[in-house]
């Protein structure tokens, strides 16, 4: 499964980090370089995955067991890989995904306290070696992110969590970035959008140049 042609780019971050605000910008950068981009998200990205997303983010199953939550994330991911991500990569397209498995480590591992080795076992089973080629982690203090997110619609099943949950999510993301610093780039997302996009542009241009021109 790990043999692919296109490149796999993911964007991660906590609440209100600005993923939605920056994904279109990243997509434009890729397309301006002449790349064919498949833009998708997790949980979701397929018809079945979007149904699972509704179960995960909605309030119908408040109190869902944490193992159920983790396995639903990976069930949606298995479908997403089989139907969207792998066919696109194998066809030479680039895939730009709003969240992926780092979020399972951050939210289900860090946030909910599931043993990381159990998440790793699912990752190996479902992904069989496939990992993103590049990940942008939009990082900012919890308070700033919650203030920004609070100005939007109804909170989902994750957004109603307590401050300590989001601190654990953030520190797990930062641990991943420090451990896997070739793949994961930390973006300071607390600054104005134009400055966030300057950081993103620098990393994306360097990555695209390296991939296209060696
Ligand atoms: N999840 C999980 O637990 N495990 C997994 O494996 C996966 C996911 C894959 C999916 O939600 C949820 O699933 C997520 C983790 C969990 N938890 N939650 N919640 P999502 O990713 O779809 O939703 P989200 O995290 O809430 O992201 P979002 O809705 O896309 O928000 P955002 O991207 O973080 O922020 P935004 O909408 O771009 O910006 C928020 C506001 O801030 C907005 O008004 C912007 O105009 C403003 N903004 C953005 N940037 C700036 C700057 N730089 N300055 C000032 N204001 C700004």
UniProtKB/TrEMBL annotation:
<dbReference type="InterPro" id="IPR027417">
    <property type="entry name" value="P-loop_NTPase"/>
</dbReference>
<keyword id="KW-0418">Kinase</keyword>
<dbReference type="Pfam" id="PF02223">
    <property type="entry name" value="Thymidylate_kin"/>
</dbReference>
<dbReference type="GO" id="GO:0005829">
    <property type="term" value="C:cytosol"/>
</dbReference>
<comment type="similarity">
    <text>Belongs to the thymidylate kinase family.</text>
</comment>
<keyword id="KW-0067">ATP-binding</keyword>
<dbReference type="GO" id="GO:0004798">
    <property type="term" value="F:dTMP kinase activity"/>
</dbReference>
<dbReference type="GO" id="GO:0006233">
    <property type="term" value="P:dTDP biosynthetic process"/>
</dbReference>
<feature type="binding site">
    <location>
        <begin position="13"/>
        <end position="20"/>
    </location>
    <ligand>
        <name>ATP</name>
    </ligand>
</feature>
<dbReference type="InterPro" id="IPR018094">
    <property type="entry name" value="Thymidylate_kinase"/>
</dbReference>
<keyword id="KW-0545">Nucleotide biosynthesis</keyword>
<keyword id="KW-0808">Transferase</keyword>
<dbReference type="GO" id="GO:0005524">
    <property type="term" value="F:ATP binding"/>
</dbReference>
<comment type="function">
    <text>Phosphorylation of dTMP to form dTDP in both de novo and salvage pathways of dTTP synthesis.</text>
</comment>
<dbReference type="GO" id="GO:0006235">
    <property type="term" value="P:dTTP biosynthetic process"/>
</dbReference>
<feature type="domain" description="Thymidylate kinase-like">
    <location>
        <begin position="11"/>
        <end position="200"/>
    </location>
</feature>
<protein>
    <recommendedName>
        <fullName>Thymidylate kinase</fullName>
        <ecNumber>2.7.4.9</ecNumber>
    </recommendedName>
</protein>
<keyword id="KW-0547">Nucleotide-binding</keyword>
<dbReference type="InterPro" id="IPR039430">
    <property type="entry name" value="Thymidylate_kin-like_dom"/>
</dbReference>
<dbReference type="GO" id="GO:0006227">
    <property type="term" value="P:dUDP biosynthetic process"/>
</dbReference>
């Amino acid at each position: 499964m790990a043999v692919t042609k296109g490149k796999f780019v993911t964007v991660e971050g906590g609440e209100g980090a600005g993923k939605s605000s920056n994904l279109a910008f990243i997509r434009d950068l890729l397309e301006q370089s002449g790349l064919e981009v498949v833009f998708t998200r997790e949980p979701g990205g397929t018809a079945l995955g979007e149904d699972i997303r509704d179960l995960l983010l909605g309030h119908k199953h408040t109190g869902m067991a944490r193992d159920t939550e983790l396995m639903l994330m990976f069930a949606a991911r298995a479908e997403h890989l089989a139907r969207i991500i792998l066919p696109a990569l194998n066809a030479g397209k680039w895939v730009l995904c709003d969240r992926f498995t780092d979020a399972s480590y951050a939210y289900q591992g860090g946030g909910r306290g599931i043993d990381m080795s159990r998440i790793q076992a699912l990752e190996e089973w479902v992904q069989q070696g496939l990992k993103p080629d590049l990940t942008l982690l939009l990082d900012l203090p919890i308070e700033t992110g919650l203030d920004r997110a609070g100005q939007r619609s109804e909170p989902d099943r994750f957004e109603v969590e307590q401050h300590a949950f989001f601190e654990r999510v953030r520190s797990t993301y930062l641990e991943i970035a420090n451990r896997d610093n070739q793949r994961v780039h930390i973006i300071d997302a607390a600054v104005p959008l134009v400055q966030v996009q300057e950081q993103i542009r620098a990393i994306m241009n360097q990555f695209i140049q390296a991939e296209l021109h060696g």
